[in-house]
Amino acid sequence: MNRVITFGTFDVFHVGHINILERAASYGEELIVGVSSDALNFSKKQRYPIYSESDRMKIISSLKFVTSVFLEESLELKLDYIKKYKASTLVMGDDWEGRFDWVKSECDVIYLPRTPSISTTEIIEVVRKL
Ligand code: C2G
């Protein structure tokens, strides 16, 4: 059985998130999603997500092509998560191209093209200007 794993914040959930999760799921029979914690986001971006980690996990776990969800607490733990969930494929958007090649000893790594013209940051900017 091929188990796929992917990671993301998925804040202010939008169609770009749906597209990558749907395409990630098509690479195997099960899709496991690591949702970045509020603390991990603060350490990466110096701001907290709009939606809390528990709400973001609830949204992702309700999708029909997602098998299970867990909290991603550190970018450096990728390999541990891959082993723990016995994933054979890691899928990420191509904004992360090359960044996770270091786990290739453990699983296949696939970077998929991002959905153009939509992002959480742009949505926040548009709403801010209203
Ligand atoms: N994404 C996409 N198209 C968009 C926006 C996002 O395909 N228009 C993808 C990203 O490439 C990523 C996933 O959706 O694979 C989640 O994106 P973010 O929520 O922005 O995740 P990020 O903050 O990059 O966290 O361990 C990695 C991190 O947790 C990823």
From TrEMBL:
Q: Where is the Cytidyltransferase-like domain?
A: 5-125
Name the Pfam families on file.
CTP_transf_like
Molecular function terms, GO-annotated = nucleotidyltransferase activity
**InterPro entries referenced in this protein's UniProt entry, alphabetically:** Archaeal_FAD_synthase (IPR050385), Cyt_trans-like (IPR004821), Rossmann-like_a/b/a_fold (IPR014729)
**UniProt superkingdom:** Bacteria
Organism the protein comes from: Escherichia coli
Q: What are the alphabetically sorted keywords of the record?
A: Nucleotidyltransferase, Transferase
Protein name (record): Glycerol-3-phosphate cytidylyltransferase
Q: Which gene encodes it?
A: tagD
What SUPFAM superfamilies does the record point to? Nucleotidylyl transferase
